[in-house]
Amino acid sequence: MSWHDNLIEEDDDIRDILRASRKIAVVGIKDEEHEKEAAHSVAEYMRRNGYEIIPVNPHYDNVFGMNCHKSLSEVDEHVDAVLVFRAPKNIPDHAKEVLEMEDKPGVFWMQSGIRNMDAARKLANAGVKVIQDHCIYRDHLRLIAAH
Q1: Computed from CA positions of residues 144, 98, 73, 85, in that sequence, does the dihedral angle turn out positive or negative?
Q2: Rounded to whole angstroms, what are the CA distances from 11 to 30, 90, 104, 134?
């Protein structure tokens, strides 16, 4: 299997990931004061649709009434996926955190407009599936909620 096999772009693969990934760490999540921003509203949508959200952002103590982790290295429970709302220049640091996790998530998902091929390659080589430049909200609406 080539690392390219872990770069996910096909709808069937994304649908399978959305069905299997029930616990999602959201890096760069925003709190309720930013409810109109995607970094809050997308996570809220996923939460309302049965996903367990683990907030990760050093600027908040809590989001959705839950403890907000300062970094992925503070997350001490298994997560199925890491969803990232950070600028592309920050992706290598978050990818490194994932690669250092003892219990790696199966998926590293970069929201719309976010790509970093070097980080994607490193994650994919480590067996982590990578989705780049996709909105999890839109994909869920299109592939799960609409069916």
Answers
A1: negative
A2: 28, 26, 23, 11
Check if the beta carbon of residue 57 is closer than 8 Å to that of residue 29: yes
**97: CB partners within 8 A, 6+ apart:** 71, 72, 73
Q: What is the 3-state secondary structure (H, E, C) of 69-88?
A: ECCHHHCCCCCCEEEECCCH
pTM of the model as a whole? 0.96
Buried b (16+ CB within 10 A) or exposed e, 21-47: beebbbbbbbbeeeeeebbbebbbbbb
Q: According to the model, what pLDDT value does residue 1 have? A: 58
Mode of pairing for the β-strands spanning 81-84 and 62-63? unpaired
Report the candidate in 5, 1, 2, 7 with the shortest Cα–Cα distance to residue 117.
7
pLDDT digits (tens, 9 = 90+) for 59-83: 999 999 999 999 999 999 999 999 9
